[in-house]
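Supplementary notes for students who missed Thursday's class. We covered one full example, reproduced here. Read the sequence, then the structure, then the short commentary at the end.
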Amino acid sequence: MRKRVKIILLLHICFLSMMDAMGAVPNVVIEQLDNLYRFVPAKGGDKLDKVEVTEQATFRANRSEDVGVAIGYYSDDVKLVKATGGDVTYGALYDDDYFFNDSKGVIVSARLKKAGATAKTLIQTAYTKPEFFTTVYLFEPYYVESARYTFEVPDALESRFEFEPRNISGDKLKYTKERKGDKVLHVFTMTDVPQQKHFGDAPSRNICGPQIVVKGHFADVNDLYGYLRSYLDDDDPGAPAVTAKAKELTAGCTTDAEKIAAIADFVHKNIRYVAVEHGEFGHRPDIPSEVLRKLYGDCKGSASLLVAMYNAVGLDARRVWIGTTSIADNWTDNPSLSCGNHMIAAVMLPDSIVYVDGTASTILPPGLPGSIQGRQALIEDGADRCITAMVPLLAPESNRYGSHYDLYISPEGTLSAEGGLTLTGLPAYSVEAILNSSAPVKHDKILKTILLKDVKGVDAEIKSVERNGDKVSILGSIDNVGKVKRVGEEMYVELNPMPALTNYKFDNKDRTEPGSIEHNLLSDNSLTLHIPEGYVVGELPADVAVSNKYFDGKVTSTVSDDGRTITRTVVVVTRRGIVPLDQVKSYNSDVMRLVNSCTASVILRQGN
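Structure (token representation):
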């Protein structure tokens, strides 16, 4: 049976994982997974023409009738050859009004009519642009009893390619090298492979997922650069319109920094980001004049427009290929198309490089999106060579989430707060992005929600808002903050300066992946309690400090000289990185030491 429907395959995978996770022993398993990757040489034998992929799975039902589902992907550059073994469904990989991606999916649903029944599915594809065949991921939404991954490489190409397993313990994956006529077989086998579960607070699957990386498509980074640059088209018939617009935007600018900011601001405010990937995995940018005419484009389109505008006003601007923080490798470590998923612009100044991301609508240079900080940039520099440079990873102090509130206890025993937030860097950009994507009539409600979540209040009133580049300040008053409990002559007051601190913990239930800290961030939060008449300070929670490779944290309590206020402060500094699986438990313990201190009550006693 063949159908043509729109489907979202990733959701289907999650559904399968969830359903099988409900039972201790899954009903549907894969008895045998046998995948073959044939490297087919071009005529002459010294170049790779295509990679043919055959994926076969034998499903078994353990307890009752069920369905085994195999999923494949294809596009303009990955040809679907055959899909058999059950009901076959074809559809678009994404379904969204403004996002187009030519990647498609095929689902083969194999009926397992009774307990013990088996069924075999087969999906065959061919990478007609073999350089896109960069990684084989070894995760399945089923328990796999036995798996075999075979890379068949002809002798003429054998010295060129290598296959590197990652994120797989040594005793799980076996490797053999065999000869078959004039071909070499690189064979990887695994047994007893559990269902794969991805944790939302883990690094991307590109980084931590079990995989085999294919190396050797490009000789070095300049060879890769030459390939990427072949997609660029420097002939733009509409270039005069781009030049005229750039000169108009910078007419009042007196410095390079002002020119850079003016053009970036125009692109951010007027060029809508629309990701259009069609053929060649979306490597070919639209020409700048078309982006300007249509007022939309993807990252390559906005980057090309930025470069053309900057060059039109006398700046030395280049296009930059880059991988975001979801990408595992740097360009020079493994010259591969898998190292990049984004394009930005770079302005080459005499003493520095200014990076400009056309899709980061709230970040004016020299500000940097967190997704590209610390990543290696591949910068165009002529026809056959490139420049590689590291985008700066900004210190935690550049990204500050600061809050301070004065708290007052009413005669009825409720807490109210006066104060608010001061955000810089990434926290400020996040708030700006939320406000810019919302109607102005909704801004007050959004700002109230931000304050209420910050201190877990019930209702809020916004007093003032300041938005200035990379800094946002929100001040207001909040009702019913924390808890007050009277017991005899004592009053217990909950003064938690950072309720969101529990979000720093990783989900550790049945965890199989490392944790990910996404950003360098300084969080500095304090509450000052004004002690009501007739009460004095009784007991304060003990100060707590923790320090490890990934964050430093400190909770302190201080009393003013006149004894009429108590200030509780928590300062946490996080450092971007990956927390190994065997360190997640101790990391969580350090977080909980701070959380327990934050949630401990201040005790006031009756007295003068």
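Commentary. The first strand starts at residue 2 and ends at 4. Residues 554 and 599 are 14 Å apart (CA to CA). If anything here is unclear, bring it to office hours.
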